[in-house]
């Protein structure tokens, strides 16, 4: 690991700890050259599928786009970045478990909408308005009325059917 201060590539690990629910390891390091201490994170490099867009284009899965889209929907809402990051990690794990080399953007968008529906109804409607390309206020009203009809699943309730 290259020291951020002097660029030396020799260091020693002072401390290692599991972080983010065991998804990564946090390491404190000390540069052999200048004794500068710094932190690094080690995580599994996931090989997620490519995303097939609505127009047929294919692009690599981009975690940042997913986080940014959810952050935009949750803007000025009482949802922390940690909660969004956890939701994105869950979506990534679901996509990885489903396998396949290509995933339709509609599948990814559907998973985002499920997570947002459980987190915050306002964020859900914001995301749905862009994702489903609402054209007028009637579509907003229809979605809000449909939300009222659906029972919000409790976080403590186990899923019977998957």
Q: Any key phrases for this structure?
A:
single chain, alpha+beta, 6 strands, about 40% helix
Structure description:
With about 160 residues, this protein is an alpha+beta fold. The protein folds into 2 domains: about 10-45; about 50-150. Helix content is about 40%, strand content about 20%. The chain is built from 5 helices and 6 strands. The strands form 2 sheets. Strands 1-2-3 form a 3-stranded antiparallel beta sheet, with no helix packed on it. The chain has a 3-stranded mixed beta sheet with strand order 5-4-6. The longest helix has 18 residues, at about 80-100. The protein is elongated and about 65 Å long. The termini are far apart.
What's the topology here?
Elements: E1 11-19, E2 24-31, E3 37-43, E4 50-52, E5 58-60, H1 63-73, H2 81-98, E6 102-104, H3 105-119, H4 121-131, H5 137-149
Parallel strand pairs: 4-6
Antiparallel strand pairs: 1-2, 2-3, 4-5
Helix pairs in contact: 1-2, 1-4, 2-3, 3-4, 4-5
């Amino acid at each position: 690991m290259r020291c951020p201060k002097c660029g030396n590539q020799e260091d020693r690990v002072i401390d290692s700890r599991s972080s983010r629910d065991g998804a990564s390891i946090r390491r404190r390091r000390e540069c052999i050259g200048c004794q500068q201490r710094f932190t690094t994170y080690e995580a599994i490099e996931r090989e997620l599928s490519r995303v097939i867009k609505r127009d047929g284009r294919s692009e690599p899965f981009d975690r940042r786009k997913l986080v940014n889209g959810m952050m935009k929907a949750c803007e000025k809402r009482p949802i922390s970045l940690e909660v969004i990051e956890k939701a994105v990690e869950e979506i990534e794990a679901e996509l990885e478990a489903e396998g396949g080399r290509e995933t339709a953007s509609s599948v990814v968008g559907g998973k985002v909408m499920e997570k947002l529906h459980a987190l915050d109804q306002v964020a859900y409607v914001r995301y749905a308005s862009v994702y489903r390309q609402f054209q007028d206020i009637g579509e907003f009203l229809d979605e809000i009325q449909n939300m009222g009809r659906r029972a919000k699943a409790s976080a403590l309730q186990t899923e019977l059917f998957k």
